[in-house]
Amino acid sequence: MARLTKNPGEFLIETHLHTLEGSACGRATGAEQARARKAEGYDAIIVTDHFFRGNSRPSRDLPWAGYVDAFCQGYENARAEGARIGLRVFFGWEENYGGAEFLIYGLDKTFLLTHPEMISWTPEEQYRAVSAAGGLVIQAHPFRERPYLKGIHLYPHDCDGVEGVNRAQPWEQNRRALNYARSFCLPVTAGSDIHTADSLLGGMAFARQLNSIRDFIDAVRNREPARLLTGPESGKNGLQVPLLDVQ
Ligand SMILES: [Zn+2]
Ligand SMILES: [Zn+2]
Questions:
Q1: What residues flank ion ligand 2 with Cβ within 5 A?
Q2: What is the pLDDT, as a whole number, of residue 246?
Q3: Which residue ranges make up each domain of the chain?
Q4: Cβ neighbours of residue 209 closer than 8 Å, sequence gap 6 or more
Q5: Is this model's pTM higher than 0.85 or not?
Q6: Of 229, 235, 195, nearest to 10 (Cα)?
Q7: Which of 17, 24, 190, 221 has the most CB within a 10 Å radius?
Q8: Which ligand is nearest to the CA of 102?
Q9: Under-50 pLDDT residues of the chain
């Protein structure tokens, strides 16, 4: 198992992770994900399975409460395993708007259960509702290109920040995302978008402990100093937040 490089005092968090239980494209269970990330040296992970309009695993024919229950299984299994092995596990999700995807942090299962109308939100409505409830909206991999994606859709006014580094995308697309975030003065996050128990080693290294998803949100909003885990493709051992030099 590959291991992360950790500088003294750093807190390593994976911000973008999928499970088999919640995501149709997930290849490792929540428990397997927790064990793999712990072995790599992460202090915390945020489970962000594909929600209803994305590549979600549970049947959309289930009653809403049943769908939400099934959707949360990956997170709940990861959290139980994390409690056993000493890994913090936080909850989030990823929703899809015609190819543009958003990571939602800081809300919980109760929010999902009480907002069945969310499956017909626009990005603007999502931002308004999530913000009102105290959550954070991050546009995931905004410059991702795939044969099935028609165009690149940016929502700088309907999010709190941008996923500047996504380890599942080519560096060129991350470089564009980082420059985009910088041009709109938006905070950035970094994550692996990992779907398997293999290693991508993405995420963020903060200079302090994050004890809750609320701490993570505050750190991102306040642009606390952090290292974005980029790997060798950026030509650097990570990029520093606030963003100073994106080549
Ligand atoms: Zn996926
Ligand atoms: Zn994802």
A1: 94, 193
A2: 56
A3: 11-241
A4: 11, 43, 215
A5: yes
A6: 229
A7: 17
A8: 2
A9: 247
